[in-house]
Amino acid sequence: MYVGLAKISLVIGESHSLKQKRMVVRRIKDRVRERVGVIVAEVGEQDTWQRAELGCAVASGESQVAGELLDNVIRVTVGAAIDGGAEVAAIARDVAPFTKQAEPFATKPDRTEADWVPDEWREDLK
Fold it and tell me: How many other C-beta atoms lie within 10 A of the C-beta of residue 15?
C-alpha cells in the first residue's frame, strides 16, 4: 500500500477577517471534493487572516495512482485558489510505501446485562 500526502500553503491577500478567509478556504475545499473526490482539510494557520495551509492524504495499492491523485488535488486546488483570490505560496508532496505489519486484534465478547449491573442493584432486579 502507498500513502500520498500533500500540504499546500496559501496567501489570501484580500482577506481582512477570519470569516473572509474561511469563505475562500471553504470554496477551495468544496471544489476539490466535487472534482477529485478527495477531502482537503485546513491543517495550519487557522488563526491567521491572510494565510492558510491545506492538507490531503490518499492511499492506493500503486505508487503511481497515489501520485496522480495528489497531482489532481494540487491542480484543482491551484485553480480554485486563483479563482477565489488566493495565491499558492508553497507545495509539499510525497508518496511513500506503508509497510507496517498488521497486529492481531481481539474483540471483547459482548457484555450481558448482568455484567454491568452493580452488585448493590442486583437485589432489586430479582
Answer: 21
Q: pTM, whole model, 2 decimals?
A: 0.77
Domain 2-99 indexed as CATH 3.30.70.1120: yes
CA atoms in the 13 A half-sphere facing the CB of 31: 19
Could you state, in order of their start, the residue ranges of all structural domains in the chain?
2-99
Exposure of 57 in the CB half-sphere (CA atoms within 13 A): 6
Q: Which residues contact 36 (CB under 8 A, 6 or more apart)?
A: 69, 72, 73, 76
User: From the first residue on, what is the mean pLDDT of each consecutive set of 10 residues in the chain (126 residues)?
Assistant: 96 90 94 95 90 96 96 95 91 95 75 65 68
Give the H or E element holding residue 20. Answer: helix 18-36
Residue pointed to by grid coordinates 498488521? 102
Is residue 79 within 8 Å of 8, Cβ to Cβ? no
